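Lab notebook page, bench 4
Experiment: in silico fold of construct C2
Operator: M.H.
Input chain length: 518 residues
Purpose: comparison with the prior construct
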Amino acid sequence: MLKQIFISSSSASFELENTDCYYAPEPYQIYLNGEFVREEGHNVFSLYGLLPDTDYAVKIQGRIGEEIITFHTEAIYAVLNVRQFYAFGDGMHNDTQAIQAAILSCPKGGKVLIPKGIYLVTALFLKSDIQIELEKGATLLGEVDRHQFPVLPGRIQMENGEELYLGTWEGEPDDLFASMITGIYVENVKIYGEGVLDENAQNSDWWVDHKVKRVARRPKGIFLNHCNHIEFQGITVKNTPSWNQHPFFSNSLSYIDMFLTSPKDSPTTDGCDPESCKNVKIIGCRISVGDDCIAIKSGKMEFGRKFHTPSEQIIIRNCLMEFGHGGVTLGSEMSGGVKELSVSQCIFRDTDRGLRIKTRRGRGDTAIIDGIVFENIKMQRVLAPLTINMFYKAGSEAFIAEHFDRKPQPVDDTTPYLGHFTFRNLSVKEAQWGAGYFLGLPEQPIEEICIENVSFEMAEEAKEGIIIMTPENPKACKKGLYFENVNCVHLCNVSVLHADGEEVIYKNVREKREEKDV
């Protein structure tokens, strides 16, 4: 019923094992070594201020029952307080060099401690085999002058003739301002605590003419490039210049009990965008941003064709997604593919879409999306709960004119493939545009869509909107389920309440099964 999902030298996180979404079925009390800590109402909770290399027993008690588990905090080799390196923490002096010195000086198995204070910084670069703790009341505050930030070149020609990619933007190599936390080929790092990374974009020009490249592309909140075994716990990351979290060609990553937030009208401030990453866990996080809450990517054509590296083995569980364009989005930069994605026990609230898949002709035959499972999900006031679009409008006008014809085209090495999708035990309330819209390619239909034990309920006073982005931009209001160019559709115990018109529409669907349990 209770399991440990994160441990450091001074903190730990735990998860209730149940089928409830984000919130526990009943409030419960937490005790640590017999002492009352607090009452909790979430499935995931964290404890801080622990001693290193120490045995502990945590007990939960309430109507949900009682359980005790023991754990042992990690030993720490040395603790380097950034104040010892002459960091001021007054929000006025630039503390980048002092904190960077502490990071570079930290020995393997050591910890960099950032105590209470406001530390003005630009970009900090990680080092392998260390921990970084931001204590409660500690804030890293972003510098507002872009000219103070170093730039990561998009391409560097190496002596062996190969290319080194340091900066990337929307799935392609590009010069990129270094992020407040930047990891380049590092491993075995933990960053945790109750502190805040306030990237301060609202007080800079990062969100002004945001599509214009000035010197370099906007930094991310935290950028990991070819990193392994990186864990985050507890910290808040907010007001990021662009994407909040961007792991790139990185493996074995954990994002536990974090709060990722930017204003809902801030441009392209996605929450967490793993790109060509493997073994990623996003558990117990609250995400409220100005674009997609979580977007799974794997590069545009060049990266996908050259490296054949999908994003795979990704677990998203017990998260709350709010106000983003999509709760969980796949693409549109997905030329390397997406495989084995599990999303469960999450709440999508006031997002434009719940699941959103975006691809198109030209993404390539390595652009394979398969093995996608959504289960035990609640959607509240989501405009369009489920959308899969293989005609996603992207590219120049000439490209759109050439590649977006609704007639079948030859299947070649530029044709993407969408495989098997399962949606199970979903509760959808107050949807507006439609229950689901699934549009495959006529020459390469979506292979299979299974929807089981799902109730869609339309809002009584719904407004119409663009349910998927295609050259036609079809508008919809209170529509049911629409399937076009799909090989197999299986509906079991599916209901659509208060829809205008037919509950289910099929167009060019080879096999369809509708079942109701008696």
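Observations: The mean pLDDT is 96. Residues 96-105 form the longest helix (10 residues).
Next step: discuss at group meeting.
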